Amino acid sequence: MPLKHHVFFCTNRRPEGHAVGCCASKGSETLCAQMKRRVKEAGLTEVRVTQAGCLRRCGDGPSVVIYPEGVWYTVRSESDLDTILHQHIGLGETVTSLLMK
């Protein structure tokens, strides 16, 4: 079955104190696992959630990009995950409040 959405979470890890920072130190690994669980529980077989290496936006992270739209989000909480699942994935609407700057 073809994918409707492919969600990439930056889970890059840099050394503590790195000037750019990293998404992993901001909780991206946990958020990615939570999103995977929510997608599975909802039976969304046309959605895949994938850990990614550096997406080059760690300073703005935790970074998430959703394809095929190519929409970039900063995701900081479980509430943000729920909003993306409902609004972006469910309704096909961009979540403007979470758009990466």
Structure description:
With about 100 residues, the chain is α+β, with helices and mostly antiparallel strands. It has a single domain (about 5-100), classed as Glutaredoxin. It contains two helices and four strands. Strands 2-1-3-4 form a four-stranded mixed sheet, with helices on one face. Helix 1 (about 30-40) links the parallel strand 1 and strand 2 (about 45-50). The relative contact order is 0.23.
List the helices and strands and how they pair.
Blueprint: E1 5-10, H1 28-41, E2 47-52, E3 63-67, E4 71-74, H2 78-90
Parallel strand pairs: 1-2
Antiparallel strand pairs: 1-3, 3-4
Helix pairs in contact: 1-2
Task: Based on the model shown, name its key terms.
single chain, 101 residues, alpha+beta, Glutaredoxin, 2 helices, 27% helix
